[in-house]
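Two quick folds needed for the group meeting slides. Do the first one here.
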Amino acid sequence: MVLMNTLLWTALGTGFIFIMTCMGASVVFLFRKEVNRNIQTVFLGFAAGIMIAAAVFGLLVPAIREAEENGFAGWLPASIGFILGVLFLLALDKIIPHLHPGTNTKEGISISMKRTTLLVSAVTIHNIPEGMAVGLSFALAAQNSADSVLFSSAMALALGVGIQNFPEGAAVSLPLKREGFKTWKAFLIGCLSGLTEPVFGILMVLLAGFIAPVMPWLLAFSAGAMMYVVVEELIPEAHLGEHTHYGTLAVMAGFVLMMILDVALG
């Protein structure tokens, strides 16, 4: 019964962040001409700020607290899990063939694939950590059902990730349109990029249900994967062009918003 309730809440939480991705991708219908680079900079920076705060307040802090309650040194699973998450995303980055919007440089294993497929692969890698984070947060709340704060924190994390998925969905679809994709196709790809979130969210719940003692490690793992995406992709892309301070301020705004959500709702 507990597992079913957890899966239900995870499905609702990850379904919400998926819908927000689609809503963000729909912004592409509002632009008939070239999209202003500053708009994309703000979107990317805002998403980066929320992900940084989510990784720290929504994942690493609970990981440390959970480890200490189980008699471990809090820094041990937090640091090792974080590093493993980074290495996991790095491995995916090196193995899975993909292409980032706005570039012509293919990454991953060299293989003959359509440009559209390579672009979809890039955003798929990008969204994996977010689904993991939301799924693990609800799994942790289910394992400690007497602690209502953990459930509130999971809700806050889902809300924060959902909010950042709006600009993130736009940050996927808008560059695709700029590259010459038809508007509906750019929207569809941007929307589908969020499908990995419900899938990995539910997988994490099922995994955590069988190996509850490693929850702190999984939380830190997810945090490391999220931070890899932020540092490798979001922040660099938010600082392309002339007015990079727009991206910087957007990062700060996203961080503050996610911090407020976590503290106020948690």
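Then this one, please, same format:
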Amino acid sequence: MDAFKVIPVESVSQALAGTDQKRRSPWYFDWRVLIPLLSLGIVLALHLALPADPGYRVKTLPYFSRFIMLLLGVFAVLGGLSVFYGRYRERLVYKTWFLGAAFLLLGVYDLITIKFNLIPSLYFPAPERIVEVFLKDWFFLLRCLVYSLRLLLGGFFLGALVGVLTGTLIGWSQRWNYWIMPVIRIIGPIPSTAWIPIALVVFTRATDASLFLIALGVWFPTTILTSSGILNVRKSYFEVSSTLGASTLRNIFSIALPGAAPNVFAGLFNGTSASFLTLMAAEMIGCKFGIGWYINWQRETLAYPNVYAALIVIAVTFSFLISLQFKIRNRVLGWQKGTIRW
């Protein structure tokens, strides 16, 4: 009968709460912080133990092993800090499995390129050659990135401003909706990159054409989702506000736009993706500088390590901008977080 002894629910809850409190306490070591270190150790050991394939004709470099050692040091420090800071430890532990898998995939790519030579090294360079690009060409990459960000942010803010204005007009007024919506249905679905030949003819400078194309790519999703958000706001809110003497502008800025804010941010997120696609296409065709131009230039010279390095720069930059938008969204819409799930 002892084997079937009933344990009170309160005891289980207290045990779980005690474990959770222990993990949140300032001094606690969670073994999961070692997962990235274990993965990096495996990658480094295989890289140093296995020789390069005899058919691999490219000169081997020490940069990849040094890069892995640097990551080992970084995550060792982060793991040590996690022992003393509970909130930081939770964030690190949550990401450890993904980081460990990502590092192992990096090691697999190193094996199939330089160690086993299973894919063409011209088009799929070893990780060490990509790391070399960051070490030797970092300043030029940074200049190209700054030039691209200038175009991207200029076109993004222009498209976002016009998109919110247009979406507000067609979402609020039936008269504006009657005249503008047919134009949006005709022009909006056309990819902004399809307008490149016309933009290069209309605008005298490639920079102005790029700004227009990026703004066009941001304008359409922002307009559609802003108008949709305003149309979904309850009409009773406006009726009560008007009864209390609010003007049309007060209703728009105090009720319509705050109520449509989640849709507005969703449109801006979609517009960010469209702006990056447009930027890359515009720079590859018309501009004489920037990340897109850099990729096209290195591709023509068959310098594929530089191409992959530029793609990594784009991925990191895009991820940073999206994360920044999420932070702004969470701060601006903090009052809606209890009613709208994200």
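Slide caption for protein two: The radius of gyration is 27 Å.
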